[in-house]
Design brief:
Length: about 280
């Protein structure tokens, strides 16, 4: 229900901006475009789709996952692509990208600009936007809690994090542990820094996943695969190359964030090397 309300908020946003949309206005913004800015925007572009991979973590809690997980992925990605493209095109028609790039609330500001700041609908959209934040938060909580739970169950994290609630059978301690980390991140970081940090983690995950996919196809050729990668090996090769390009771009435009992320990643590898399981 939270996701539906958030989606209705985006529909309202697009409807209110629709009178301003024109091909001429969109193309006029390209006159100030510099190719390097395309790479600088990569973290925010990835943020449109970040955590959608968490759909796979619902496999153990899904009826007929072989059928329904791909459906969930398809509908989820389709919705994201549609909204992302429309929001970018409609917002760019306003021609105030310089102003929007300097604030943490671009959509309410864009809507306020289009309505001359007088419409009560701007306030309604802002409140509906809170549901969008809630939907993202709930999706990320679901994803990280199941990931922490799976790692703890396999022995890569303290086993206490794999304890399930007796009543709801949910990994409540994993939820709490991830929330603590999230709260600390909010207290010490700004929005753009947190986005870049999160995107770096996602990109590294995507790259490792693609490498693991190829390796698994080699060492386990007869393994049952409920979901087959379409157009293999072209699709994962494109994904791997894209991930490497994105990683380089994010590191180039966010060197300090990249160094901080790399340090934490290296510490994690050392901890695994000296204390982690070696039987996998």
């Amino acid at each position: 229900m939270v996701t539906i309300i958030a989606s209705l908020g985006l529909v309202l946003y697009l409807a209110l901006l629709s009178p301003n949309v024109s091909i001429e206005k969109i193309l006029s913004g390209t006159e100030k475009f510099h190719f390097g800015e395309l790479f600088a925007a990569i973290p925010f572009a990835i943020w449109f789709y970040l955590a959608v991979e968490g759909v796979a973590l619902a496999a153990e809690e899904t009826i007929d996952p072989k059928k329904n997980i791909p459906i969930g992925y398809g509908l989820g990605m389709g919705t994201l692509v549609l909204f992302a493209c429309l929001i970018v095109l409609f917002t760019s028609s306003l021609g105030i990208e310089d102003t929007l790039s300097k604030i943490d609330y671009p959509l309410p500001q864009a809507l306020s600009f289009s309505q001359n700041g007088k419409s009560v609908l701007v306030k309604i959209f802002s409140y509906l936007g809170l549901f969008g934040i809630m939907a993202s938060l709930m999706g990320i909580i679901f994803g990280y809690s199941r990931q922490i739970f799976a790692l703890a169950r396999s022995g890569y994290l303290p086993g206490i994090l794999a304890i399930l609630s007796k009543k709801y059978q949910s990994p409540y301690l994993a939820c709490i542990a991830g929330s603590v980390v999230g709260i600390i991140a909010l207290l010490v970081g700004k929005t753009d820094i947190l986005i870049s940090f999160s995107v770096l983690g996602a990109i590294v995950l995507y790259i490792i996943s693609m490498i693991s996919l190829f390796r698994l196809r080699i060492i386990e050729p007869e393994l049952e695969r409920p979901y087959l990668t379409p157009f293999y090996p072209i699709t994962p090769i494109v994904a791997l190359i894209s991930g490497i390009i994105c990683l380089i771009a994010v590191a180039f435009y966010n060197p300090q964030v990249f160094l901080a992320f790399g340090s934490i990643f290296l510490i994690g590898i050392l901890i695994f090397y000296f204390f982690g399981r070696k039987d996998v």
